């Protein structure tokens, strides 16, 4: 039975290949070379301004190089969040929540909060109030090796 389907599949594949070939030839006839010329011109304009960076230039060879490497990423924004707890809830129950509703979380009172950076656990802490604003005091920082293990 599989042998009977193969000739039809091969015919459909060749028809599809013919359609793609026709479409590609129409695209190349319809000004595709002009588009390539525009890209080539734009790239040649940039060649004079762009200097390739060599890895040795970034490394620096010593601890001073490490500081310059870190300077490259120091201004990249990340999202720092604290997770008090979580729970799973059915959409039916979610739709019934109103002002004053209580949602039970999976953490006990007094248990440390998770501190996450871009969704990755980096520390645990406790809530504090400083100048009428909430803050978090870090009580345990996850080691870099442990963070790498959690990524896998």
Automatic annotation (TrEMBL):
Subcellular location: Cell membrane; Bacterial flagellum basal body
The entry's keywords: Bacterial flagellum, Cell membrane, Cell projection, Chemotaxis, Cilium, Flagellar rotation, Flagellum, Membrane
Record's protein name: Flagellar motor switch protein FliN
Entry GO CC: bacterial-type flagellum basal body; plasma membrane
Gene from which the chain derives: fliN
Function: FliN is one of three proteins (FliG, FliN, FliM) that form the rotor-mounted switch complex (C ring), located at the base of the basal body. This complex interacts with the CheY and CheZ chemotaxis proteins, in addition to contacting components of the motor that determine the direction of flagellar rotation.
Record's keyword annotation contains Cell inner membrane: no
InterPro entries, sorted: FliN, FliN-like_C, FliN/MopA/SpaO, FliN_T3SS_HrcQb, SpoA-like_sf
Domain Flagellar motor switch protein FliN-like C-terminal: residue ranges: 72-142
Membrane topology, from the record: Peripheral membrane protein
Gene Ontology BP terms: bacterial-type flagellum-dependent cell motility; chemotaxis
Compositionally biased region (Acidic residues): 1-18
NCBIfam families found in the cross-reference section: fliN (TIGR02480)
């Amino acid at each position: 039975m599989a042998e009977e389907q193969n000739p039809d599949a091969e015919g459909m594949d060749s028809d599809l290949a013919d359609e793609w070939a026709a479409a590609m030839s129409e695209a190349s006839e319809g000004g595709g070379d002009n588009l390539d010329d525009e890209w080539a011109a734009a790239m040649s304009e940039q060649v004079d301004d762009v200097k390739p960076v060599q890895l040795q230039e970034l490394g620096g060879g010593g601890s001073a190089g490490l500081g310059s490497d870190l300077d490259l990423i120091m201004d990249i924004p990340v999202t720092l969040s604290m997770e008090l707890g979580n729970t799973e809830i059915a959409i039916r129950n979610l739709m019934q929540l109103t002002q004053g509703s209580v949602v039970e979380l999976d953490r006990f009172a007094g248990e440390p909060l998770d501190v996450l950076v871009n969704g990755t656990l980096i520390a645990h802490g406790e809530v504090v109030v400083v100048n009428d604003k909430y803050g978090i005091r870090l009580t345990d920082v996850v080691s870099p090796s442990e963070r790498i293990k959690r990524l896998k």
